[in-house]
Specification:
64 residues, 0% strand, mainly alpha
Amino acid sequence: MEQERAQQLDAIESDLADVELALARLEAATYETCEVCSVALDDDVLAVTPLQRRCPTCATTVTS
């Protein structure tokens, strides 16, 4: 039970970090571009996956 709670807390902290990064990218006006190659991210993709940080090409070739 304690290990499950620790895993849940880790997941929540990871999600929070992703949201904070997205907010920082919004403030820096880089939210809608790939963080690797700077290509524009698709608006439809961002609507579904607002924490998307990489274009499809970079997402498959660059690890976190």
